[in-house]
Design goal:
mainly alpha, 13 helices, 60% helix, 2% strand, disordered C terminus
Length: 240
């Protein structure tokens, strides 16, 4: 799998998204922070296999891994991820060698390597080498479908998990109610709205998705906010 064509939202980028397999699409639409967590767990489990590891070191690794567990990253997912193989470890360590040296171990030290390791092309290598990562992502997707079987109320505040997944500056779509990710690397809002409609079609059926699409149409017909207008054009061009 290649990296996403730029700019996001371009015709080339939409064609790239459409060409993805279901498994590739799951990876692409998983927040980068969680993709990195999957790799961190695989590396942590590899460290636990180190010959002669001391009990205190073993405990520290286990505590760091279990600290990742939340409403999204469940214990079931943590258990599903298998240790990183030699090749995967080499890729991971090569990427982390690009990080600037720090004296306090802050998250900023991971910024450059995390960007590289979680880009689609590189991360798919890890999925190929360690299929258990994809299994964990599918568990997350199943859990997400269960949690979001009904669209949330657009007036509801974001949950703490949603803030972690989509960012503190995320907001709910004024019609769909689902979170809109913002900032660098986020899909254009019109494409996120399209994903919301697809999700409703998968979880509630085509009639519910069509009803949401009509609500979007009604919303935009009386709104000066044109950020979402291309969604309607795209859906109509698709004959929906």
């Amino acid at each position: 799998m290649n990296n996403a064509p730029q700019p996001l939202g371009s015709e080339q980028h939409r064609a790239w998204l459409a060409s993805l397999s279901p498994d590739e699409s799951l990876v692409v639409h998983t927040p980068a922070g969680y993709l990195f967590d999957f790799l961190a767990v695989a590396m942590g489990k590899r460290a636990l296999m180190t010959k002669g590891i001391k009990p205190a070191e073993q405990l520290a690794v286990l505590e760091r891994m279990h600290a990742l567990v939340d409403e999204y990253f469940t214990p079931e997912m943590l258990a599903a991820v298998q240790p990183m193989c030699d090749t995967g470890c080499a890729i991971f360590e090569e990427a982390t060698s690009l990080d600037p040296p720090t004296s306090n171990g802050s998250d900023g030290a991971w910024r450059e390597s995390a960007r590289i390791l979680t880009c689609p092309r590189v991360f798919w290598h890890f999925v190929t080498l360690n299929p258990s990562i994809l299994i964990a992502i599918k568990i997350a997707d199943t859990n997400r479908r269960r949690r979001t079987a009904m669209p949330p109320d657009p007036k509801d505040p974001l949950t703490e998990t949603e803030k972690k997944v989509f960012g503190e500056d995320a907001r709910r779509h004024p019609v769909t109610g689902f979170p809109i990710e913002r900032g660098s690397g986020a899909l254009p809002e019109r494409m996120q709205a399209q994903n919301h409609i697809r999700h409703v079609a998968e979880t509630e059926g085509p009639e519910a998705a069509d009803a949401m699409r009509k609500r979007l149409e009604a919303f935009h017909s009386g709104s000066s906010d044109r950020r979402f207008a291309p969604v309607l054009v795209t859906e109509k061009n698709n004959g929906n």
